[in-house]
Amino acid sequence: MKLRLACLAVLLALPFAAALAAPKEKARDEVLVLFGQRRVTLAVPAGFRFSSDKDERGLITARLADPKEKVTLHLSFLPDTDGEFATPRGRKEFLVQTFQRYVAGSVEQAMQFEELEPRAGAGTYCIFTDNDLVGKTSFPPGEYLHATTGLKTWRGCLAVFTLMSNSTASDEYRAAMRLLRESLVEPPLTPLR
Question: What is the DSSP string of 6-31?
Answer without folding.
Answer: HHHHHHHHHHHHHHHHSPPPPPEEEE
